[in-house]
Structure formats: C-alpha cells, structure tokens
Amino acid sequence: xxxxxxxxxxxxxxxxxxxxxxxxxxxxxxxxxxxxxxxxxxxxxxxxxxxxxxxxxxxxxxxxxxxxxxxxxxxxxxxxxxxxxxxxxxxxxxxxxxxxxxxxxxxxxxxxxxxxxxxxxxxxxxxxxxxxxxxxxxxxxxxxxxxxxxxxxxxxxxxxxxxxxxxxxxxxxxxxxxxxxxxxxxxxxxxxxxxxxxxxxxxxxxxxxxxxxxxxxxxxxxxxxxxxxxxxxxxxxxxxxxxxxxxxxxxxxxxxxxxxxxxxxxxxxxxxxxxxxxxxxxxxxxxxxxxxxxxxxxxxxxxxxxxxxxxxxxxxxxxxxxxxxxxxxxxxxxxxxxxxxxxxxxxxxxxxxxxxxxxxxxxxxxxxxxxxxxxxxxxxxxxxxxxxxxxxxxxxxxxxxxxxxxxxxxxxxxxxxxxxxxxxxxxxxxxxxxxxxxxxxxxxxxxxxxxxxxxxxxxxxxxxxxxxxxxxxxxxxxxxxxxxxxxxxxxxxxxxxxxxxxxxxx
Length: 506
What we know:
- It is found in: Mitochondrion.
- Pathway: Amino-acid degradation; 4-aminobutanoate degradation.
- The protein has 506 residues and is an alpha/beta fold.
- It folds into two domains: 12-264 and 479-495, Aldehyde Dehydrogenase, Chain A, domain 1 (3-Layer(aba) Sandwich); 268-467, Aldehyde Dehydrogenase, Chain A, domain 2 (3-Layer(aba) Sandwich), CATH 3.40.309.10.
- The protein has helices spanning 52-69, 74-90, 92-103, 107-127, 166-178, 191-204, 221-230, 243-253, 278-290, 310-322, 342-357, 419-427, 442-451; strands at residues 18-20, 23-25, 32-36, 43-48, 134-136, 144-151, 154-158, 181-185, 211-213, 234-240, 259-263, 268-272, 300-306, 361-364, 388-391, 410-416, 431-432, 434-438, 456-459, 474-475, 478-479, 492-499.
- A seven-stranded mixed β-sheet has the order 14-15-16-13-12-18-19, sandwiched between helices. Strands 9-8-7-10-11-21 form a six-stranded mixed β-sheet, sandwiched between helices.
- Helix 6 (191-204) links the parallel strand 8 and strand 9.
- Helix 7 (221-230) crosses helix 8 and helix 9 packs across helix 10.
- It starts with 17 loop residues before the first strand and ends in a 7-residue tail after the last strand.
C-alpha cells in the first residue's frame, strides 16, 4: 500500500477485496474472479467474488449506518462529498490508467470520464443543501400543510462496465447527498475503478457502512442482484445496463415494492437534414458513434441522412473513420480501443454480416480478419473490431441492426427524403434514450425536438451528457432521471404533514 500522505494504491494487486462496513474483506466463500485487460487478454489480477451472504452483511451495515447518516446535516454530507471530489481529482491520472487497463478505452477518454465522474460528486455536494420542501396554502384557516423530503433509505446500486467510474458517482453521490446509504455491485468486467473510488471515499472520511462495495464474478451476479432486490432492508434499486436485465430486476424488486430507477438500452437515431453543417455533423458523428469503441448507451445507432447530402456526408465520414487508430488505450495516438469481450465482438460481426447479406455496401473498415491485424504483437489476443461504415440504402429486407443496439464501432447509413417519414422511422423502436439531429432551420429544431420520442435530444452536437442536465430515457429505456437538480428526487420520499388546530387567524 502507498503511504498515508500519498493515499491508497490503485494497482490491481491492492484492489482485491470487497468493502463492507468500513472493512476490506474477502468473500465468505473464499472465491475470486479474474479481471482481464481486453486489449491483450492478460489477467490483471483477481478480486473477491462475493455472494448472497456477503451482500446481506453489506445491507445490514448500510441499514445500521443509515440511522446516523440520515441525521447528519446536509452541510456536513456536502463537505464530505466535496473532500471525496478533491481526492478524486488529485489522483485522476492514476484512476484513468486503471480504467484503461480494465475497460480498454483510450487514456484521453478515461481522463475525461474521471473528470466527468468527479463532477457528479462536486455537483451533489452542492445539491445536498438544496433539498427544499414546500408549504402549501391550506383550505382551512386553522390548518398548515407542509411537504418534507426524506431519504429513501438503503439503496442497491448496480452499475455497468462501459463507464466504470461515472456510473458509480452519478448514483452514489446523489444517494449520499440525500441522506441514503448504499450497497454497490460493480461490474465484474471492471471492478477496480469502483474499488478505487471506495478507497478514496474512505480516505475522505465518509463513515463506515455508508458506502459498501460487493464485487462478484459472473456466477454470483444473479444471486447478489436478487438479494438486493428482495431484501426488505433495501428500499431502492438503481440500475444501469441492458433492458432485459432491467426488466428482471424490476420484477424482483416488485416483491417488496421498492423505489426503482432504470437507465437501460438505447437505439439512438442520428438525423442529418439537407441544410445541416456537414463538417459539424461528421465530426459529431465520429465523437458520438466511436467514443468508447461504440460501447455507450447514447451512441448513434442508426444514421438517417437526407438523400441530397448523403454522398458528401458518407464520403467525409468514411475519410474520418479511416483516420481512427486502433490499439491499446495507453499507447499514444490511439482513438479506438478494444471491445470489452468476445461476446461484444461476435455481436458486431453478426449485425454487420446480416446487413451485408441484405445488400449493405462496405464503405470502409470491417476487415474480415478477426481480430484485425495490428502492428503490436501484444494485441494478438485482444478483442478488437475494426471501425467501419456501411451504406444501407439498398437493403433487400430490414437489417437486424435497425432494431438491435449495435454497441460497437459500426456506423450504418440510411437515406431519407421527408421530415415526417424520418421522425416516424426514428421513433419506430421500443426504446427511447437519446436522439440526435442536425439542421440550421430554427423552426425545424423545435418541431423535430418535440416529436422525437426520446428522453434526451441533442441538436447540432454529438455529445449531450453533462452533470447539469437530467439523464434518462422513456419507453423501454428506463425510469427516472440522474444528474442535474432532479437527480436527488429518486433518492427521496415526500412526506405530507397536516397540522390542525393552529388557530384561526381571520
């Protein structure tokens, strides 16, 4: 371990244990699971694989801690959160390196995520003092009506691997600011980032039991999730991940009528109208589609380009994608890292081949070699997919990628002519997380933004996530909002207090 002045070590060998009630401990079963570098296939280390009993221990610790944490002042909670933020920013380069090793994203993106993640802690450190209630004018002169906000209680937090730090802080910081305590199940593919954040929370002085981390391998994940969802002591579940898993957790949580927040899958349209600034649209498309190797829930999934500008847009996008450099995220100049695992690789290949079999033309990338040839021999066992662009104007039948979330570095281009028709195509999916469109017509901005059935809509930009704005979807993309001034509401309950016999002032 590093000395106390420098803070805790973030080497994988020093992040092997779970964190329950302020103690770092192994799983009761003694089981562990391996964590790999997806760029090389190398095992980085092993982590305690906690199960149902460990999770129950963590829930009990969080329940005990809640009795004290809820009574601390919002100012005090905010001060501890701000200390956590400062510690995180002070170690952002180390945290980013750790993230790149386990997740694969390029180091520049990882540094950006650490800053983004820390900003959620800073935001909710400030929001803790703004959990205002209301006084409502009563219908009788001798009554007073007051609405108070109380913390929900113990919260089960289940996070994904694609943003291993930001998805922790976006949920945990809001919960703690509201006065809740948490039990977190970090993803088995990227547990180190979550455990490192717990180390910093401990260093910041957040009391024992307020934050608990129960890492687990794939075989224990269903058991841990079920324990969190069915425990009477847990009053809220917050989950980010696939729609299928979200539905399962929602069913399990119904047994105890828990409060629930779900941020699930997407199928984002990216619409380029004939009057769009094409340079901006292309640059935004690259950022939106290929950030994180295309493995984000708000990635563009279907590109709809007006036929009047289809050819120049496709040509410029192809040229830009050809400039992307694949490799290990720690290497200089790399802009696209590996997929997280072979399952992700196989899905992208399947969707690509299905589209080609139905008439799609390959404009660039998508080498038939899997993995594609890379200069560095270290990467021979990495889970890489070459970034590619498909022209899907002449499909003989609908392609699977029109309905399925690609979750990889594959851009599929479709042509359209009519505004109403493209809105209908964009909305013709069961999910509704994020949508993007590009136009210089201000009247069209309002029309399209209002008619797209998505929880978040970006106009003339490919990046929409920020701590100040509410993040979340509609339809099968989820329930609730995270971040922004709305972000604490899902961790609070409203209490109505009716005061009678207060005296008639008339």
